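I hope you will forgive my troubling you with a question about protein structure. The record follows directly beneath this note:
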Amino acid sequence: MNHPELDMDLVQEKLTATRAELLEDSESSRDARDTVMLDQTSVGRLSRMDAMQGQAMAKAQEERRQLALRRVSAAFTRIEKGEYGECIDCGDWIARKRLEWDPLALKCIDCAS
């Protein structure tokens, strides 16, 4: 049984919106993750270093987005199994306020500490 204090339709809407936002951000940052030009005739050394640093930061952001997308998918799976809102460590219900703030939370506040 999913968390008894939550409106699961609202949770699913929030998760769907989160997934859409993550996918949109991923698509819009695609250019920032592209290969950096290394041609010294067109770009100076410091400019290339800045571009490479920007690319590395964009790739790190994308890794975090992909992790969040996996967490969203896992939340949908827990909903389908009727396990949404249960702490993965102790099995108690995660506080409603905690799940409203972070619908991807996997642990109650005691187990997360």
User: Anything to note?
Assistant: The chain has a mean pLDDT of 88. Helices lie at 8-28, 45-81, 96-101, 109-112. The radius of gyration is 20 Å. Residues 7 and 92 are 18 Å apart (CA to CA).
